[in-house]
Design brief:
- The chain has one domain: 3-Layer(aba) Sandwich (Rossmann fold).
- It is about 50% helix and about 15% strand.
- It is built from 9 helices and 7 strands; from the N terminus they run βαβαβαβαβαβααβαα.
- Strands 3-2-1-4-5-6-7 form a 7-stranded parallel β-sheet, sandwiched between helices.
- α5 links the parallel β5 and β6.
- The longest helix is centred in the middle third of the chain and has 29 residues.
- The protein is globular.
Length: about 270
């Protein structure tokens, strides 16, 4: 009952890791604000989460547009709701060689993965610091630790998210607010379809993909215990540790081998 009346805001909450996180918050008694672009998905997810006996407020926003991130904050403030926990989960990638991908699509991904995340963190963190309590979970990735051929922009955005999260965490360490970065690897979500990545070697072995429920649990526990970051999954922990001691050029080559299309010759 200690969480009764507290609100958690989760972006990209209707599928994958975001949905599994929303379920965990609901089970622990948090009221929820959930957002994504699709109104029908929001309505369906809201009904599912309300079965836990919590309030759920769906808000349709397109966070590819950074102005809608400001609008999301304004809508919540207008309702007089205090957000105790912010989960910046919404994110997307695009697959292919950088010189061949549409620049407008890449810029939209940068706006979603970086700009809107920064806007929401700025707005809600300011409120949290002023009152002396709050938690933020930012979805980074093990991609944040290694250059990613075939996903150059996505890996770059996640490197930003991790660096940004660690820096702001240090700035606010004495304020009663914690910032945690969740770093999953390949996870069984719709990410790869949205990124047009079905041809990549990285997604051919579905059995090797992490369960989004397991990733969400790792992130939730790290967030609630105030950790700075968590790499989800033993295999991913090993990969991150190995990449830290290898030259970046070697890591980039290995990622190229992992992520290139299956029809490409080694």
């Amino acid at each position: 009952m200690e969480n009764k009346g507290k609100y958690a805001l989760i972006t990209g909450a209707t599928s994958g890791i975001g949905l599994e996180l929303a379920k965990l918050f609901a089970k622990d008694g948090f009221n929820l604000i959930i957002t994504t672009r699709d109104i029908a998905e929001l309505d369906e997810t809201s009904a599912l989460l309300r079965s836990e006996g919590v309030e759920v407020w769906p808000i349709a926003k397109d966070l590819f547009d950074r102005e809608q991130a400001f609008g999301l904050y304004a809508d919540i403030k207008q309702k007089g709701i205090e957000v105790e926990i912010l989960v910046n989960n919404a994110g997307q990638g695009v697959y292919g060689q950088f010189d061949q991908i549409d620049i407008d699509r890449e810029l939209r991904i940068i706006d979603l993965n970086i700009a809107s995340l920064v806007v929401l963190t700025k707005c809600f963190l300011t409120d949290m610091v002023n009152r002396g309590s709050g938690r933020i979970l930012n979805l980074a990735s093990i991609a944040s630790k290694m250059p990613g051929p075939w996903q150059a922009v996505y890996h770059g955005t996640k490197a930003f998210v991790l660096s940004f999260s660690e820096a702001v965490r240090e700035e606010t360490k004495d304020t009663g607010v914690t910032i945690t970065a969740l770093m999953p690897g390949v996870t069984d979500t719709d990410f790869f379809n949205k990124a047009d990545m079905q041809a990549s070697k990285a997604v051919q072995d579905e059995d090797a993909m992490a369960d989004p429920a397991d990733v969400a649990r790792d992130g939730y526990e790290a967030l609630m215990s105030g950790k700075d970051k968590v790499v989800s999954g033993l295999k991913n922990k090993v990969q991150v540790a190995m990449s830290a001691v290898m030259p970046d050029s070697t890591v980039a080559h290995q990622m190229n081998e992992q992520q290139k299309p299956v029809h490409e010759n080694s």
